[in-house]
Amino acid sequence: MNGRPGAAADAGNGVLVAFSGIVKTYGMGDATVHALRGIDLVIRRGEFLAVMGPSGSGKSTCMNILGCLDTPTSGTYLFQGIDVGALSREGRALLRRHRLGFVFQGFNLLNQSSALENVELPLIYRGLPSRERRLRAREALEAVGLPDRQSHTPGELSGGQQQRVAIARAMVIEPALLLADEPTGNLDSGSSREIMELLTAFNEDRGITIVMVTHDGKMAAYANRTIHFLDGRIDSEVQNGDEST
Amino acid sequence: MIRETVLLALRAIRRNVLRSSLTILGIVIGVASVIAMVTLGGGATAQVSAEIASLGSNMLQVRPGQGFHGPGGARSAAPSFDRKDVEAIRGQVYGLEAVAPVSTAGLQAVSGNRNWSTSVLGTTNEYFDVRDWPLGSGRIFGEGELRSGKAVCILGTTVGRELFGDGDPLGASIRLEKLACTVIGILASKGQTSFGQDQDDVVIMPLRTFQRRIAGSTDVEAVYLSALDGVSTTSVKKDIEGLMRERRRIAEGKDDDFHVRDMQEIVTALTGTTRVLTALLGAVAAVSLLVGGIGIMNIMLVSVTERTREIGIRLAIGALERDVLLQFLIEAVVLSSFGGIFGILFGLLMALAGARAMSVPFILNPGIMVVAFLFSVAIGVAFGYFPARRAARLDPIDALRHE
Question: Which chain A residues are Cβ-neighbours of B308 within 8 angstroms?
Answer without folding.
Answer: none
